Amino acid sequence: MQAAAAKTDPANTTGEPVYQLRNVGKTYARNAIVALEGVNLTLNKGSFSAVIGSSGCGKSTLLKIMSGLIPPSTGRVVLQDRPVTGPRRDIGMMFQQATLFPWRTTLENIVLPIEIRDGKAAAKAAHEQGRALLELVGLKGFENTYPSELSGGMAQRASICRMLITEPAVLLLDEPFSALDELTRDFMNMELQRICTTRNATAFLVTHSIQEAVILSDVVYVMKPRPGRVAEVVTIDLPRPRTLDMMTTPKFGELVEHIRSSLDKEAFK
Amino acid sequence: MSNLERIADTAPATEEDTVWTEHVGWLDQVPRAVQMLFVFVVFVLVWDMVTRFGLVSPIILPTPAETLADMIFVGKNLATGGYMLPALWITLKEVFYGFLLAIAIGFTLGVIVGETAFGERAIMPYLVAIDTMPKVAFAPLFVAWLGFDIHSKVALAAFIATFPIIVGTAAGLHAADTNSRNLFKTMGASRWQTLIKMKLPMGLPQIFTGLKIGSVGVMAGAITGEFLGGGKGFGELIRTAASQLNTPRVFALILYLSIVGLALFAFVAWVQRRFVFWHKERAGLGGES
Ligand SMILES: Nc1ncnc2c1ncn2[C@@H]1O[C@H](COP(=O)(O)OP(=O)(O)OP(=O)(O)O)[C@@H](O)[C@H]1O
Ligand SMILES: [Mg+2]
């Protein structure tokens, strides 16, 4: 069994560190609620990490800090050697809802980050790139449809394109597929893996599903509530590329079981 | 059907389609136009009975026939450029300028109140306070300030129509959900960009609701202004006819005015359908496709 419990970061698989959190803490409501305490983590280039934990243990808070939406109360947050002090261009973010704007076509939605950043002309120039991304996620031909005509899974795929169009250094995903049915979600997860591999993207995923975390990740962070902190870091050394078939292997089962018992322990403590 | 299911299937060999009819009341099966016509005919018949059998004095309520005759008279007068046409033109101008003014002021104040914390905290309470006042009571003031010409009527019309537009705009700007806000934040959008590219478009349904309520108020404002401040508009024609106990004329004039009001409302609804094509709600009267 390769699940190594560690207080520090495991020396992660591939490239050099991209994103580093050191001793990050967050308190809400005038220090009454400690949402996060002493979180350390390092995302290496091209790696896929997931964070899992019970509801209210601070996962979304962690992601909001990492995306520059809210400031940490304590600790250092450093992306590509620069402290994160607000939303950044090298961060791509994806939420539970697709959040496409109904008055824009799919393609116009996808180039929106470019339009915000560099203006309408640049957005126009990015249309070609947007089309290529739509093709990448299997939405070729839906460029000019409006989001109301897309299914939930298609809308989430479009929002992946929107996240990717600015070519961010890290992708932060807050339960991106939890609103989808299980079959679609498995499919989307494999798509996500493929996209991350082809683009050598660094990804950080918040999820409630242990299977999802294990099948996608190189590292799984198990979080513990009150105060929210990383209780265990589990290295997943299943071979890549991962396939859905791996979910039936004993090794996968062991890893899932290990994380589940670790979560159970937290729940009753 | 899969093999597995077929084995377990105990349905008889003679298979029929399951026919399932939903019960729809006979009245609901009638086309809408016929339904509306029906209500109209019943209304006119009752009206005719009431007048025919002398239940109400003809001075109070004219017969439908008299009213129709007077409508034709007024229509001819308007069509041939008689003395009523300039009066209608004056009222139309009041409504037009009043509405433009209300849109300009209402939208500006709505954005200030909806977008800034200062506006919401410090300005909104005063607007609510003024909104609860009977605005018609300001009419004599407007006349005193702006005279008996159309200006005082434009002011009253705009005054009445401004508040729903403020409220609609402010509510529209608050309609944006946390996800959209966070998304715009993570994209590094400025406040201006967030307003223009997200909050305003997202709030258009509410803004148009405000505009539609305003379009109704602006007519009421203009006519009230004419009742209370004189002038040479359509309201003055109504007032004169009423003082001469010419009730059929009053009815006819009111009906023409309501056509104008309906046209304005329908115009706003039409613009809404052009701009808010993505919104899936009924756009109110005349808003069904
Ligand atoms: N804006 C806020 N003000 C005060 N407390 C907050 C705020 N946001 C979150 N919290 C608190 O911080 C803690 C962590 O919340 P967070 O949303 O990060 O949890 P989570 O792990 O994402 O939960 P879930 O799995 O349900 O999404 C919770 O106890 C929550 O009540
Ligand atoms: Mg959450």
TrEMBL record, chain A:
Keywords: ATP-binding, Nucleotide-binding, Transport
Keyword Transport belongs to the record: yes
ABC transporter domain boundaries: 19-250
GO molecular function, one term: ATP binding
CDD domains: ABC_NrtD_SsuB_transporters (cd03293)
Segments traversing the membrane: none
Similarity annotation: Belongs to the ABC transporter superfamily.
Name used for this protein in its record: NitT/TauT family transport system ATP-binding protein
TrEMBL record, chain B:
All copies of domain ABC transmembrane type-1, residue ranges: 88-268
SUPFAM superfamilies, per database record: MetI-like
Transmembrane segments: 33-55, 95-114, 126-148, 154-176, 207-230, 250-271
PROSITE patterns: ABC_TM1
Principal location class: membrane
InterPro entries: MetI-like, MetI-like_sf
GO cellular component terms, A-Z: plasma membrane
Domain of life: Bacteria
BP GO terms, sorted: transmembrane transport
Keywords of the record: Cell membrane, Membrane, Transmembrane, Transmembrane helix, Transport
Membrane topology reported for the UniProt record: Multi-pass membrane protein
Cell compartment(s), UniProt: Cell membrane
Pfam families listed in its UniProt record: BPD_transp_1
UniProt family annotation: Belongs to the binding-protein-dependent transport system permease family.
Name of the protein: NitT/TauT family transport system permease protein
Organism: Roseinatronobacter thiooxidans
